[in-house]
C-alpha cells in the first residue's frame, strides 16, 4: 500500500488521534499558562525569586522526556495524567520567562505615570502592565505549544493519547508492510498540527493585542 | 498680594536607605494657590524627590504635607494622586490605549459616567490645541513628540485637579517645539489658574515659566525662593548667582514682552509705489531705509537707498532686504535674537494677521533693560525702608 492509499484508508483514525493530540497539548499549555503567568507576576520584580523560578523551570526542561515518563509510572501510573503533568513542566519555562521579560520590558515611565494618576497596584497590573506584556507572553505560549506537540508523541510510550501511538506502533513492527506508513502518518499529523496551532496563535495575536502596540 | 497657601511642606525629610546624607533635608515651604512654582537646581539636589513626595510617589521619612490645610501625609496615596495632575518628561502615555482612553484614565477611576467622560475628553483635546474628531481615536505612536506632550498635559488635567506636578515636562522636546509648548502652556495657565509645581534644571525655563522660583541646593535646601525678577536682580548668595550664571541682564529680557514696551514708528511704502515717490519719502525721513508693505499691510522687506538708486520701475515686494518680524507676545530676548539673526538692528512687530504694527529698535531694548534695573533697585530700597512692616514681594 503506498502512503496516499494508506492515508485514504486510515483517515478517520488519524483524525481521531490528531484531535486527542491537539486537546492534550492545548490542555497542558493552558494549565502551564495559568501557573507560568502567575509565577511571572509574583516574581518579576523580585530578583532572587525570579532567578529561582527560572532555574527550576530550566531544570525541568533538561530532564529527558522518556526518563520523566518512566519516573512518573510509579506515582501517576500510565495514560493521560502523567503525560499532561510532564507537558506542563516542559511548557513552563518559555511562558514564565516570557512573562517576566514582558513585564520587565514595560516602559517604567508608563508605569510611573499610571501610579502618579492614582491607579492601584492591581489596576496597574491588569490594565497597563499585563496588556503591554501580553504579546511577549503569547510568544512564550507559542513556543511551549510547539515544544509540547513533539513531547505528546513520546507520551504514547506510557500509553498516552495522540499521534504518538501510530508512530510507536510503526516503530515496534518495523518489518511489517505498513510500518513506514504508520510512522510517516503520525509524524505528518504532528507537523500539520504544529502549522494549525501556529496559525491559531497568529489569529490570537491579532485578536488579543491592542491596536496601539501591534 | 500672594494668594492663600495651597500646598504646605513642613520639615519634609527623605533618607534613602544606604545613603549617609538625606536627599531632602527638613524642607519647609508654602506654595501659593494659582501660581507656577519652579523647583530648579543642579542635578542630584533633590528637586524631583521633593516633588514626588507631594503626591507620595516617594514616601517622606519625616515631616508633613498639607493640601488646602488638610494633612495628607497619611491619607490613601492613590486617592491623593487622583486629586493632582502629574506630567513627567517621558510623558508615559499608555501605548495600548487611544488618546481618548488615555485622557479618560482618572475620570474613569473617579467613576464619572460615560457621557461626562466623553465630553471632557473632547474638551481637553481642544483645549491643548488639537482637533478632537481627528485625534480622539488615534494611538500615542501615531502622534509627534510635541502632540504627545500636549496629550500628556491634557491627561493630567482630565479630572480638573487644582494641583499639577510637572517633572521637566518639556525636557525631551526639540527647542523650537519646546518654546511653542511653553508659550501655549502659559496661555493656558492664564485661563485655568492651577497651582503648579514644576521641576526643571534649566534656569532659563524657570525664569520664563515661573511665577516664583525655588533655587535648591543639595539636600533640597532652599537657596532662594522668590520671583524671577528678584532672583535675577538680587541673588541671595554666591550659589544662586553662580546658578543663574553670567548674563543675568540678558535673561531678564525673557521677562518682558514686546507688548509691554512702546513701539516705534517707521516710514512705510506700499507695494507698487512710483519710484520717485519712494525716493522722496526716503529723503524726507531721518532713517536709512523704508519699510515695504504689501496691499494687506504685511511687511515685505527693507528698501535702502541702494535699492532705490538701482531700481528702474515702481517698488515691488521682491526688492527689499529680509526682515526680522516678531509678534506682541514675543519676549524681548526673542526679539533681540531675531535682530541678531537678521543682522538688522530693528525688528518689525506684526499683529495676529501679520500686519505691520510698529518697530522695536535695539536702543529700545537697551532702555528697557536699564529701566528694569532702576525700577527694581528703587523697589528694593523701598522694601528696606518698610522693613518694620514686611510685605511679600509680588509680581
Can you walk me through this structure?
Chain A is an all-alpha fold and 214 residues long. Chain A has 8 helices and no strands. Chain A has a single domain (3-213), classed as MetI-like fold, CATH 1.10.3720.10. Helices cover 83% and strands 0% of the residues of chain A. In chain A, helix 1 (3-43) crosses helix 8 and helix 6 runs antiparallel to helix 8. The longest helix of chain A has 41 residues, at 3-43. The model of chain A has no long low-confidence stretch (mean pLDDT 92). Chain B has 2 domains: 5-254, 3-Layer(aba) Sandwich (Rossmann fold); 259-366, CBS-domain (Roll), CATH 3.10.580. The model of chain B has no long low-confidence stretch (mean pLDDT 87). Chains A and B meet through helix 5 and helix 6 of A and helix 2, helix 4 and helix 7 of B.
CATH class of chain A: Mainly Alpha
Percent strand of chain B: 15-25%
- Total helical segments of chain B: 16
Rg of chain A, nearest Å: 20 Å
CATH architecture of the largest domain in chain B: 3-Layer(aba) Sandwich
The major sheet of chain B is characterized as: 6 strands, mixed
CATH class category label of the largest domain in chain B: Alpha Beta
CATH topology of the largest domain in chain B: Rossmann fold
Provide the CATH topology of chain A.
Answer: MetI-like fold
Secondary-structure arrangement, i.e. CATH architecture of chain A: Orthogonal Bundle
Oligomer: heterodimer
Termini separation of chain B comes to 9 Å
Give the biggest sheet of chain A.
none
Gross morphology of chain A: elongated
Structural class of chain B: alpha/beta
Largest interface: A-B, 21 and 30 residues
Amino acid at each position: 500500500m503506498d502512503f496516499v492509499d494508506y492515508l485514504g484508508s486510515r483517515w478517520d483514525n488519524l483524525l481521531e488521534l490528531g484531535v486527542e493530540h491537539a486537546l492534550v497539548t492545548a490542555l497542558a499549555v493552558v494549565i502551564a499558562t495559568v501557573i507560568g503567568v502567575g509565577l511571572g507576576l509574583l516574581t518579576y520584580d523580585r530578583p532572587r525569586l525570579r532567578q529561582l523560578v527560572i532555574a527550576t523551570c530550566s531544570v525541568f526542561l533538561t530532564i529527558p522526556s522518556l526518563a520523566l515518563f518512566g519516573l512518573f509510572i510509579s506515582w501517576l501510573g500510565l495514560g493521560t495524567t502523567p503525560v499532561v503533568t510532564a507537558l506542563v513542566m516542559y511548557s513552563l519555562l518559555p511562558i514564565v520567562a516570557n512573562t517576566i521579560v514582558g513585564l520587565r520590558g514595560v516602559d517604567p515611565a508608563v508605569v510611573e505615570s499610571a501610579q502618579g494618576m492614582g491607579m492601584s497596584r492591581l489596576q496597574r497590573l491588569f490594565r497597563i502592565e499585563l496588556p503591554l506584556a501580553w504579546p511577549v507572553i503569547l510568544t512564550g505560549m507559542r513556543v511551549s505549544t510547539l515544544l509540547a506537540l513533539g513531547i505528546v508523541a513520546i507520551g504514547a510510550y506510557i500509553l498516552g493519547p495522540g499521534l504518538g501511538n501510530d508512530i510507536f506502533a510503526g516503530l515496534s513492527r518495523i518489518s511489517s508492510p505498513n510500518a513506514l506508513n504508520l510512522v510517516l502518518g503520525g509524524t505528518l499529523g504532528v507537523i500539520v498540527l504544529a502549522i494549525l496551532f501556529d496559525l491559531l496563535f497568529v489569529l490570537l495575536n491579532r485578536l488579543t493585542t491592542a491596536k496601539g502596540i501591534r | 498680594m500672594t494668594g492663600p497657601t495651597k500646598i504646605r511642606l513642613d520639615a519634609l525629610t527623605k533618607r534613602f536607605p544606604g545613603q549617609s546624607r538625606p536627599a531632602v533635608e527638613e524642607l519647609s515651604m508654602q506654595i501659593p494657590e494659582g501660581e507656577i512654582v519652579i523647583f530648579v537646581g543642579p542635578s542630584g539636589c533633590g528637586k524631583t524627590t521633593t516633588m514626588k513626595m507631594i503626591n507620595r510617589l516617594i514616601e517622606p521619612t519625616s515631616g508633613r504635607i498639607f493640601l488646602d490645610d488638610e494633612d495628607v501625609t497619611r491619607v490613601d496615596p492613590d486617592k491623593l494622586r487622583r486629586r493632582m495632575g502629574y506630567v513627567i518628561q517621558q510623558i508615559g502615555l499608555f501605548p495600548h490605549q487611544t488618546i481618548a482612553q488615555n485622557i479618560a484614565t482618572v475620570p474613569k477611576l473617579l467613576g464619572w459616567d460615560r457621557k461626562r467622560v466623553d465630553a471632557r475628553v473632547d474638551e481637553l483635546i481642544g483645549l491643548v490645541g488639537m482637533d478632537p474628531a481627528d485625534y480622539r481615536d488615534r494611538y500615542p505612536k501615531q502622534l509627534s513628540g510635541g502632540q504627545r506632550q500636549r496629550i500628556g498635559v491634557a491627561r493630567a488635567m482630565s479630572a480638573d485637579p487644582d494641583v499639577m506636578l510637572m517633572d521637566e515636562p518639556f525636557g525631551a522636546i526639540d527647542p523650537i517645539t519646546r518654546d511653542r509648548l511653553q508659550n501655549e502652556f502659559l496661555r493656558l495657565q492664564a485661563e485655568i489658574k492651577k497651582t503648579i509645581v514644576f521641576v526643571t534644571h534649566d534656569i532659563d525655563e524657570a525664569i520664563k515659566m515661573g511665577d516664583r522660583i525655588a533655587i535648591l541646593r543639595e539636600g533640597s535646601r532652599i537657596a532662594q525662593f522668590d520671583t524671577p525678577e528678584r532672583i535675577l536682580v538680587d541673588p541671595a548668595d554666591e550659589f544662586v548667582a553662580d546658578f543663574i550664571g553670567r548674563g543675568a541682564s540678558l535673561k531678564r529680557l525673557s521677562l518682558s514682552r514686546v507688548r509691554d514696551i512702546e513701539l516705534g514708528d517707521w516710514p512705510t511704502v506700499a507695494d507698487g509705489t512710483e519710484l520717485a515717490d519712494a525716493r522722496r519719502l526716503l529723503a524726507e525721513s531721518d532713517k536709512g531705509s523704508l519699510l515695504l508693505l504689501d496691499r494687506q499691510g504685511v511687511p515685505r522687506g527693507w528698501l535702502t537707498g541702494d535699492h532705490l538708486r538701482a531700481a528702474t520701475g515702481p517698488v515691488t515686494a521682491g526688492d527689499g532686504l529680509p526682515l526680522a518680524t516678531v509678534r506682541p507676545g514675543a519676549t524681548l530676548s526673542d526679539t533681540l535674537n531675531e535682530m541678531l539673526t537678521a543682522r538688522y538692528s530693528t525688528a518689525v512687530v506684526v499683529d495676529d494677521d501679520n500686519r505691520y504694527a510698529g518697530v522695536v529698535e535695539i536702543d529700545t531694548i537697551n532702555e528697557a533693560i536699564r529701566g528694569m534695573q532702576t525700577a527694581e533697585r528703587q523697589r528694593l530700597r523701598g522694601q528696606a525702608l518698610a522693613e518694620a512692616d514686611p510685605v511679600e514681594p509680588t509680581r
